[in-house]
Amino acid sequence: MSKKKLSFAIFGNDRQALETVHIWEVLDYLAKREAEIYMEEGFYNDLCKDLNEDIHVSGVFDGANFNTDYAISLGGDGTFLRAASKVGAKQIPIIGVNMGRLGFLANISPSEIKETLDDIYNGSFDIDERAIIKLESESEIIEAYPYALNDIAILKRDNASMITIYVNINGEYLVTYLADGLIVSTPTGSTAYSLSNGGPILVPHSAILSLTPVAPHSLNIRPIVLNDNVEIKIEVESRSHNFLVAIDGRSINLHEGTVLTIHKAPFVTRIVKRRGHNYYSTLRKKLMLGADSRK
């Protein structure tokens, strides 16, 4: 068993702060290992408020101001996506503990926390590398973190009018969408927003992206699967003269006429995967894939 002292950045949210039993399991385990524990500032404050006492950690960080051996996400997939955005290009492996509902990304159950941390110290685990996409603009500054592990969605604002979305692939015109929006999804994000709009399930590491329209005006518009080495250019027309872009749920407002480019990022998100965990069994369990409702 490794005697190396490891460091961990811990992410959570105020709702998961109430799940103190499992959180204390993590903190107690790491303290016994003499690990360096760094906690996201907002989560730390919520825990201290809930417990009415200070928690002993090696440090508290804000944003992406940390550099550790591992990151731990305590929450659902939303918490995991936020942790991934803060890890960014650091290539720090993320341990996703599911305290939410579905949990595709955060796929380690609370009952597996100690076993998973044992695996970390024993070196008995795998790293699952997931592709990321990046949003760029030729005319506007993208103030939000521009990388997405799940998806980038082009959406109408809060009015009843559809938007017009012109799409080019590698400089060649593809199609014009009249719809409420368009979702550009990675394989990781294919079981999220894209799937709820009728998009295909993409197996991780398949090196493809999908374009899934949101409530298209025409019935002959269907999701399209592309190689992930393409460059996707998008331009939007809107009666309100602006539109929304959601990057893994982080929304920004952009002006009509803005030309957007989406392409594969130069780095990946690294996820700790327990040996014996299988993607296809996760599909069957989480989505009830192939389940016969008549039985």
TrEMBL record:
Single biological process term from Gene Ontology: NAD+ metabolic process
UniProt-listed Enzyme Commission number(s): 2.7.1.23
Pfam families: NAD_kinase (PF01513), NAD_kinase_C (PF20143)
Keyword set, alphabetical order: ATP-binding, Cytoplasm, Kinase, NAD, NADP, Nucleotide-binding, Transferase
Localisation per UniProt entry: Cytoplasm
InterPro entries for the chain: ATP-NAD_kinase_N, ATP-NAD_kinase_PpnK-typ_C, NAD/diacylglycerol_kinase_sf, NADK
GO cellular component: cytoplasm
Record-listed NAD(+) binding positions: 77-78, 82, 150-151, 180, 191-196, 215
Catalysis: reaction(s): NAD(+) + ATP = ADP + NADP(+) + H(+)
Active site: 77 (proton acceptor)
GO molecular function: ATP binding; metal ion binding; NAD binding; NAD+ kinase activity
UniProt cross-references to HAMAP family, sorted A to Z: NAD_kinase
Protein family (similarity comment): Belongs to the NAD kinase family.
Protein purpose: Involved in the regulation of the intracellular balance of NAD and NADP, and is a key enzyme in the biosynthesis of NADP. Catalyzes specifically the phosphorylation on 2'-hydroxyl of the adenosine moiety of NAD to yield NADP.
Name of this protein: NAD kinase
Organism placement in taxonomy: Bacteria, Pseudomonadati, Bacteroidota, Bacteroidia, Bacteroidales
